[in-house]
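Hi R.,

Here's the chain you asked about this morning:
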Amino acid sequence: MVAIRGRDTLDRIALLEVKGGHLWAVEDEVEKHGAVHPAYGTVFMIGRRRCEGAFHHLRREGERLTTDGEFAMERLKYS
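And the predicted structure, written out as C-alpha cells:
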C-alpha cells in the first residue's frame, strides 16, 4: 500500500502487487491481473526480472505478464 498525493480514492491509497520475473508466467499469478479493490480501485502489478535494476508496470498478454513500461509513481494516480 502506498499513499499518492492527487489520487482520488479512499485515503489516497494505491495497492501494489510486486512480482519477480519467475512469476510472470505462473497461471495463478497471471489470473490476479486486473483485480479491483472496492475502495482503492485498480490493484497495480509491478515487477522486475532478476539482475535488472528497474521495476516495470505489468500487463497481461495472453497467458503471461509482460512489461508495460518502466515504473512511474505518476501512473498510480489513476485507476
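Strands lie at 2-3, 13-20, 36-37, 41-48, 56-61, 64-70.

Let me know if you need anything else.
M.
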